[in-house]
Amino acid sequence: MKNNLFYAIMMIVAFALCGCEDNNNGDVQDVQTPVVLTGKAYTFDPDDAGELWKSGKTVGIYMLKENKAEYVEPYRNVKYQTTVQPEGYFTPTDKNDVIYCPQEGDKVDVIAYYPWKENLVDDVYSINVSNQATVSNFSFLYAGNGKGISKDNNKSVLQLRPVLSQIIFKLIPGDGIKDEYLKESVITVSGMNTKADFNLLTGQFEALSTVKNITLTTLDDENGASGQVFPGDIIEGYDATIELPNMNRTYHWNLSEGLESLKSGIRYICSVRVDLDKIDVVTDEEAIDDWNPGDNHEITGTENEIQTAIDELPLGTWKGVADPMTVAKNTWCHQETTNGLSVNVESDEKLGRNVIYGNFVSGNTWYRNFIAYRMGDANKQVYTLSFNAKGTKGKFVRCYIKTNDITTGAKTNVFLANDLGTGDKPYAGYVQFTLSDSYQSYSLDFNFAKMVTNPYTFKEDEIREVTSEALADFYIAFFPTANNVELYLDDIVLKKKN
Q1: CA distance 332 to 116
Q2: Are 344 and 359 spatial neighbours (Cβ–Cβ below 8 Å)?
Q3: N or C: which end of the chain has fewer CB within 10 A?
Q4: First-residue to last-residue Cα distance in the chain
Q5: Cis before 314? omega within 30
């Protein structure tokens, strides 16, 4: 992978500097001119300078006919990634996937989105905002500014930005109100659609559906909450409910009283002055500052590495696979032997979203029956895996992360779990948690800088440095330690640990 990527980068940079070459006869021959892409990713915060987007972030690239929602074959959802050298470039993950300008000189447009998905249907990216705590729902960014590209003008600076609208409620104490009275607030908005498809070719939302209440996420450093919702020109019927349990008060506010619309990529600050018998709301609209190429509003890279959210999975029963390494990256699956496991995606009415359900008739064997998510392109550091789970009360479930590394000669390699074991072999290659009959939140740490040859206990001198092959390709697996165990999984997030 590294060699292919380096080759692709060098080829693109070289072609960017010249559009022709001389043959031995002195004639000038046309050569293919690659599209040279750089870019930056923006947050809602107009004052946040952020950090440079780290290498390895994968984006999907389309080449479109100029000013048309029609892609140019074969450049449909081509996987590109950010690079360190040269800094700031987007380059293909496979050297054979370089995107070239039309040789006839025709102008084209280039669009990009993040994070890349392999199995898009009808070139739409589905987004669900019902659960504001699910980070993966809000990592989506889109760039539609790559206009008028040709072999004579083959460079473009892509501006990847949010397509949703952000609403922030800040609670301010009025006369006779103390800050403590406003703590533990719950802010909910109602009347809004929670599901929609974003058409990558048109850059527009379509098929909005599923109106339900949306509970906003509590602010970290002040009283209030924030959330991301779909933009809309008509916001009549959008209501905010502000519950203040420490005051035994509930207030209501219609968003149309302070806002005319919700615009894509715009942050709305709603300053709520709370008095004993009423609230007053003042709204401010904040656009992302400066969309020019020299901006430094880059994202920090703390988003969910799980690019396929469980809630986005279609309902239905899965067919088992012989090896999770045989499925495409960013794919959920399950390995099943001897009819020991059945898995399906079902809708949880109470949660309001899809979950994974597994019925382990035969458990207690880590390499036979398990639920898995295949992925890759990780960094050498500690990651935190968080999720919600429930199932057969009191039963144990173990989680491990197996790599596709075959360079060490070991049949099995797993990342080191930061969970400490017992006895004379103090380390473990898995993390164990106990199921309850209601959803519980779990947080597990794995050290992606170290690996061992099995998920069980081992001696400290058996720990090895991780390889690039291991970081490039691996899967996360869940299995119970007993037979006849039911397991539900919801809202899985893998993030770099600070």
Answers
A1: 16
A2: no
A3: C
A4: 27
A5: no
Q: Do residues 435 and 394 make contact, with C-beta atoms less than 8 angstroms apart?
A: yes
β-partners of residue 385 are 444, 494
Element (H, E) at 129: none
CA 480 to chain centre: 27
Strands (E), 135-261: 141-149, 155-160, 165-173, 186-190, 193-199, 204-211, 214-215, 217-218, 224-229, 239-244, 249-254
Query: Which neighbouring-strand residues pair with 21?
Result: 29
**Domains in the chain and their CATH numbers?**
2-160 (2.60.40.2620), 165-287 (2.60.40.2630), 310-496 (2.60.120.260)
Q: Are 140 and 230 in contact (CB under 8 A)?
A: no
Three-class HEC string of 418-451: CCECCCCCCEECCEEEECCCCCEEEEEEEEEEEE
The 10s digit of each residue's pLDDT in 375-416 is 988 989 999 999 999 999 999 999 999 998 877 777 789 999
Contact 188, 71 (CB under 8 A): no
As to burial, measured by CB atoms within 10 angstroms (0-12 exposed, 13-18 middle, 19+ buried), residue 6 is middle
Residue 434 CA to residue 422 CA, distance in Å, equals: 18
